[in-house]
Specification:
Length: 235
Amino acid sequence: MGKNMSLQQALIDTLGDIIDKSEVANGEITIELPASQWLHAAKVLASDPALSFEQCVDICGIDYLEYNRGEWAGEETVSYSGYSRGVEPATSGRLKFGDEPQSNTLGHPRFAVIAHLLSYKHNWRLRVRVFCPDDQAPQVDSVVSVWSGANWFEREAFDLFGITFAGHPDLRRILTDYGFVGHPLRKDFPLIGHVEVRYDAEKERVVYEPVSIEPRVLVPKVHREDSRYIDLDES
């Protein structure tokens, strides 16, 4: 029995029906769990001898807004869609302040929390995905009580994605400055940001001001095939 088969069986035996989905990609297993079961499942994953995931390697957030939808998808987009996409933004990153982002059409919540776990005992790695039920106020339970190292990981996900973790002992920003507005890894966060920083000689301190630049996109005028890469056998 292969390593993945052994792990899959152990997951079925211990977590059973609370696993919403399980898949194998690139030699690693990913399972999806409901947010309501995340803390319970974490305790089982860490303490059950059949699993023994002693370490939480990382916890991160994901924003699925406009997932797999882009403006510059390659040669086909260039050839058949024209260049208006450089003027009329189709993704939220280039929207101006006050514009409404496009909605998520994937059929599941916008935000998810991903945990990467390691079992020293069994030499297993596992990826766990937990979707946040509420897009407007994304939240899952904190697992700091299970893996103490998750403390900073959860703070990072809160800072960059605005995902809150119920029961976290000290949930505050960790990478951005005090008073920072927004969450910079959300897909609808403007690429130019909300504020700009400069040093004020009169006040003798750094000051924050609303950003003064406008979004700008360079649009290519011509797209040509390169004859050096044309397969002569096909002509």
